[in-house]
Amino acid sequence: MNILDTIIAHKKTEVATRKAAVSIKDLEARPGYIIPVRSLADSLLKENSTGIIAEFKRKSPSKGFIKQDANVSEITTAYTKHGAACLSVLTDEHFFGGSDEDLMQARKNDIPILRKDFIIDEYQIIEAKSIGADVILLIAACLTPKEVQSLATFAASLGLETILELHAEEELAHICDATKIVGINNRDLKTFNVDIERSLRMAERLPADKIKIAESGIDKIEDILLFKQNGFKGFLIGEYFMKQEDTPAL
Ligand SMILES: O=P(O)(O)OC[C@@H](O)[C@@H](O)c1c[nH]c2ccccc12
């Protein structure tokens, strides 16, 4: 089993446990459920947008701990103050050391928030809304095209946007009407190899009407300029920011 298979197997058990513990009715009654949703698409298409999607990530299976004692409130507020277009908060506990609580703390910032997790079930989308997320991620490598279509349509019915994450050309068939934002992950989630050029190669193959985001391994302004020249509107950056002693100016 590769790491992605391991994560998904674990996620299935986790979702079953969560479903048994908290009913959908209880999720819908949470205060976060009724707060207005902020649009990532609108934020990225603003003329003066930095396009930066700044991620809060304590650890990852590929890197281990990046910043174990990181303070989510301080870091996400600094990201927002320095012009991030969106926050991304890992909520997966087991592999990434995140939590729903982290996202709820980040929610005090008035910009869109991506719930970064491995979504395989509608329940997790209701959960995302209940903790104040605006955007969810659907990863093509662990879903069928039909599942993407159905989960993205469900998210839209709750007012949430979806980023469809692609890595390989074979996954282009996962693109559907319900997903207007497409992220290209430069990191292969099965091997952890990072190749920045991947975004550029895949970009040529994407329909023109999709908003394009480059994800992972970005640590230079030159990378961002190159992505911009190739039509990317968003740049998802985690490790580079999390490794800084001070949160860097954008
Ligand atoms: O830390 P990086 O290399 O800047 O990458 C951020 C983000 O792209 C990465 O965390 C990510 C992209 N897709 C994912 C899916 C699940 C977990 C994590 C991810």
From TrEMBL:
Q: Which SUPFAM superfamilies match?
A: Ribulose-phoshate binding barrel
> Which residue intervals define the domain Indole-3-glycerol phosphate synthase in the entry?
4-247
* Reaction(s) this enzyme catalyzes, per UniProt: 1-(2-carboxyphenylamino)-1-deoxy-D-ribulose 5-phosphate + H(+) = (1S,2R)-1-C-(indol-3-yl)glycerol 3-phosphate + CO2 + H2O
- Which Pfam families is this protein grouped with? IGPS (PF00218)
Name the domain of life this protein comes from: Bacteria
Q: Which GO terms describe its molecular function?
A: indole-3-glycerol-phosphate synthase activity
Keyword Amino-acid biosynthesis carried by entry: yes
Q: Which InterPro entries match?
A: Aldolase_TIM, Indole-3-glycerol_P_synth, Indole-3-glycerol_P_synth_dom, Indole-3-GlycerolPSynthase_CS, RibuloseP-bd_barrel
Which keywords accompany this UniProt record?
Amino-acid biosynthesis, Aromatic amino acid biosynthesis, Decarboxylase, Lyase, Tryptophan biosynthesis
Q: In which pathway does it act?
A: Amino-acid biosynthesis; L-tryptophan biosynthesis; L-tryptophan from chorismate: step 4/5
EC code(s) of this entry: 4.1.1.48
* PROSITE patterns in the cross-refs: IGPS
Entry annotated with the keyword Signal: no
NCBIfam families assigned to the protein according to its UniProt record, in alphabetical order: PRK00278.2-4 (NF001377)
- Spell out the protein name for this chain: indole-3-glycerol-phosphate synthase
Please give the organism: Niabella ginsengisoli
